[in-house]
Amino acid sequence: MFKFIKTVVAGSGAGIKDLPYNIGEPYSSAWGSWIHYRGTSKEDGTSVSIFALSGTNAQDGHLAAGRNGVKRLRTVRHPNILSFLYSTEVEAGDASHIKPTIYIVTEPVMPLAEKIKELGLEGTQRDEYYAWGLHQIAKAVSFLNNDCKLVHGNVCLASVVVTQTLDWKLHAFDVLSEFDGNNEAPTGAMLQFEWLIGVQYKPMELLKSDWTAIRKSPPWAIDSWGVGCLIYELFSGTKLTKTEELRNTSPIPKSLLSDYQRLLSSTPSRRLNTSKLDNSEYFQNKLVETIQFMEVLNLKDSVEKDSFFRKLPNLAEQLPREIVLKKLLPLLASALEFGSAAAPALTALLKMGSWLSTEEFNVLPTIVKLFASNDRAIRVGLLQHIDQFGPSLSAQIIDEQVFPHVATGFSDTSALLRELTLKSILVLAPKLSQRSISGSLLKYLSKLQVDEEPAIRTNTTILLGNIAGYLNEGTRKRVLINAFTVRALRDSFPPARAAGVMALNATSAYYDVTEIATRILPNVVVLTIDPDSDVRSNAFQALDQFLQIVKQHHEKINMGDTSSTASNGLTTLPVNASLLGWAISSLTLKGKASEQVPIGSSSTQTPLVSTTSNTSAASDSDCLPTQVDPTTEAADHPVPSSPTSTDGWGELENGIHEHDSDKDGWDDIDPVEEHKPPPALANIQAAQKRPVVTQPVQPKPQVTTLGSKSTAIKPTRDEDDLWGSMAAPQPKTVAKPLTTKKITSNDNDDPWAAIAAPPPSTKAKPLSATRGRGARGAPMKLGAQRINRTSASDM
Q1: What is the 3-state secondary structure (H, E, C) of 310-338?
Q2: Fold match flag (16-108 vs 112-286)
Q3: Where is this region: Disordered (predicted)?
Q4: Which end of the chain is more exposed for a tag (fewer CB within 10 A), N or C?
């Protein structure tokens, strides 16, 4: 028979070494003769609780009651009853003295008495937590009595344990028996192991072993008395030693006093059913209502959910902090993960999560899963609070699971989502791999630099300045200068131009002297006459900083230190290492039309600084060039690589706005001309740009030439005067062109009459009226041209 019982319990083993759990330190208290140990699973290391009961022999009454408890715990399942995992009975001890021992393995729990001391709650928070715990125990007892027709027999402080989420659970089922009140011919005691119950916990009918009265009483009579004993021990803070102590009602809250007295009624039939205990005023508090709402969240409509979650962040501050973190927070995370919670719940989740330490932040798996959500409200909430949980995420999780979902916000149609996505990169960038930065992030930032929202363009420049340290050297040289000078400094939005200057200042450590002299200074100096005062101030500050770098480089060269010719010379300069602040939000400032003005046209006339001349730069800086041939100038000096080349920032923005190169500012720093004029025309254009200093000529009125509408000034040298052979005296009308040959014809109105030929036999089409002649003179002009070529050949 003994072997059969062991098989029913869980099978016998050769000893404790075969137990698939490690037994740890015991707790100081446990119900009855059981010992409550901490334990872990040998398979995965998860925490468990292990209850052990030893007897002197196999027929020990305690072991028989223990086997009854194991059987009942395995078969009775309820959320407020201790969860059973495993059990076994082994024979332990030496050869001379072997003790049979029962082991029960359950979910990890802690004795209620020890947990109360650990929490140390007082006042309202203590009453709220006690109310929630008593509510759970009352539900468990009501389930046993009313639904299962079972009697626990010994409900008290020792029979209650607390889970890791601070839920109260009922255990100690050794005395548990069926209620046989319908049995008309009772054969004996209804509770077989009632002798295990302490005298102080027995109601009068049980103390007298009046089983007839017990069977005539309602099923909850004995356990309602036990709940009354639990309430007394809970609020008095002491263990009940004798029944008379229950008459002391001073520790009991007034709102619970009437129900407490009904639970301890001397008449069994008048005792309060534990299922009605929830109607007590004491249980109507914020903590109980909040947890109950969360437990039935699926049954609530969207309006109720939205209202509840909007109040929850403020409500959570008033509840016991330990309860919120260990009970409410897991419930909220589960609701968000499985979609039963609305987007406002995310705010409450993140606020509660901020109260946890980095090591205890256990909602990260839920947050990572939420990044894949298509709900914009949830994505906005995650991005707004990413600074709270971002540092707790590992680099691998950010690079492989978070960033791919975050990056979808760069191209979202919502400006708010694009802006929040942009700002979130400041938190994620330190943990992104170079593959993600160079292969994906920079392409998105390049597009955002030409975003329709001016504040997004500004913040993109600021972000580039802040994350420059996370780029590798090659990427920095390829991206930073082009992003700041070609786009940011030429933006129509003044704060965007100011951000470009500040970003150059903040990243000055990454540029060598050649880049500063040829690419940065020429673009920054233009902003000293910017219409916006902030842009001008930042431009002057940047000029001072970069000129100091160039000056230090000059001094090093003079001292013979040629090894640092390519260095940036920042060893003695203060570098702005702090993060740049974000620009104003794009949702609050769209940029007035009067503020979005292009940079002055003088920026297009900034001359390129020669990188090969070290002496002429200073002497020629105060005067304009007079005799400069632009074709030879471009050939003599090396030209910096164009930012539109494939190895620059342009590689990342190909196909975005290729037709809008003027807006991007590429022409201002690109010396390569798209359409090279003929050498003769280049000389004319050069002559037009330089002042006339010698050989003053008589002033003549401006005329319109045949080939161009631009105003021509007589050159100072004959070899440069390509139009001299065709010049003519001043005509009587401005519509008639000039010629250089004296007219001998009697018809002064027709300069071509002297060489005119007879009209041709075929009628010629009249020329356009733009030549300034009448319809009659057109055929004569065409014939003159034909005869002129023939007569010239005869000569």
Answers
A1: HHHHHHHCCCCHHHHHHHHHHHHHHHHHC
A2: no
A3: 596-677, 690-795
A4: C
What CATH number labels 16-108? Answer: 3.30.200.20
Tell me what the mean pLDDT of segment 542-571 comes to: 75
* Token pair 């909040």: residue: 290
Q: What is the pLDDT of residue 629?
A: 38
What is the chain's alpha carbon radius of gyration, rounded to the nearest angstrom? 47
3-state secondary structure of 349: helix
Q: What is the pLDDT of residues 350-365, one digit of tens each?
A: 888 888 777 677 778 8
Q: Which residue has the tokens 């704060």?
A: 495
The class that CATH gives domain 112-286 is mainly alpha
Phi/psi class of residue 433: alpha, beta or left (left: φ > 0; alpha: ψ in -120 to 50)? beta
- 170's enclosing H/E stretch is strand 168-170
Tens-place pLDDT, residues 125-154:
999 999 999 999 999 999 999 999 999 999
Domain layout of the chain by residue ranges: 16-108, 112-286
Determine the average pLDDT of the residues in 554-578. 57
Nearest 5°: the CA angle 548, 554, 558 is 145
Kindly tell me the burial class for residue 504, based on how many C-beta atoms sit within 10 Å of its own C-beta (0-12, 13-18, 19 or more).
Answer: buried
The answer to whether the beta carbons of residues 25 and 38 sit under 8 Å apart is yes
- Which of 172, 271, 177 has its CA nearest to residue 225? 271
Edge to edge, the sheet with strand 160-163 lists 109-111, 160-163, 168-170
Least Cα distance to 503 among 551, 458, 536, 534 occurs for: 458
Q: From residue 131, how far is each of 126, 265, 286, 362 by CA, in Å?
A: 8, 21, 10, 27
Listed residue (492, 591, 495) closest to 538, CA to CA: 495
Residue pLDDT, tens place only, 55-80: 888 788 899 999 999 999 999 999 99
Average pLDDT, the chain: 75
Would you say residue 640 has pLDDT above 50? no
Residue 255's identity, in one-letter code, is: S
Mean pLDDT of 444-453: 93
pTM of the model as a whole: 0.64
Region class of 301: left (phi > 0), else alpha (psi between -120 and 50), else beta: beta
